[in-house]
Hints:
Elements: H1 2-17, H2 23-39, H3 121-143, H4 147-152, H5 156-163, H6 165-172, H7 175-179, H8 187-198, E1 206-211, E2 214-220, E3 226-235, E4 238-241
Antiparallel strand pairs: 1-2, 2-3, 3-4
Amino acid sequence: MGRYSYLALLIWLCLACHPKAEPLAQREAESRLEPALRSLPAEPAKRLERPAAAPSAQSVQWRPVPDPNSEPRKRTHSKPAAAEPEPPKPAPPPAVKKETPAPPKAESPAEPAFDPQTISQEVYDTAKFDAQKLIGSLNMIIRAKDYNAWVKNLADDYFRSISAPGYLKKISESPALKSRKIRITSPRDYFNYVVVPSRAEDQVDDIEFVSPSRIKAYRITPQGQRLRLYDLEKIGNNWKIID
C-alpha cells in the first residue's frame, strides 16, 4: 500500500511541475490515475489515543522523608481498653410459699356452769362439818399465835399472794394499822398484826358451794347478816384456805 501511494504522489508532482501541459493530456492522466487510486485499499483510520492525564495533586499521597540522623521511632502498641464489668444481675425475687391454712381446731366444749343444786344434802352436810372443824382448829392456833401451824393450813398460791410486797404495802396503808404506825413487811407480820387480833373467835354458820371442790364459809350475825370468813378448797383430803 505504501508503494502505490508513493507512485501516485510522484505522478501528481510531475503534473504540478509542468503547468504548460495541455489540459487534455492532464485530464487523460488523471482519468488513468483515478482507477488506480480507487483500486487501492483504504487505509484504516488510526484511533487517536488521549494522552494519560497527569496525576492530580489530590491523588498523590504525601509521605514524610525520614531523617537519617534521627533515631527510629518506636512503635507503641496501645493496649485495648479494658472491658467494663457488666452490672450484677438483680437477684430473683424469693419464692413465695403458699401457706396452707391449718384446719380449724376443734373447740373443746365449754364446761357447763356449776349449779349448786347438784350438790346433795349429804355432801353439803359433810363439807359444812369439815369447815367448822377447820375453823375451830384455826381459832386455837391463832390464840396460841402459832405462825407455823397457821401456815400449814394455807394453800400455796394464797401464801405467795400474801407474801407479795405490793400486798403487804397495801395492808400497811389501811387506817387501822397506819394510825398505830404499824408497817407490814412479811407474812409473819401479817399473821401477828392482822390475823391474830381479828380471827381468834370465828364461827362457821353456813357454807356455799361455788364448785364441787370449793366453798365459802359464812358467819351469820344476830341481825341475820352473812359475813364471809374464808374461801376454802379441798386439796387431796384436806381443806385449805385460798382467800
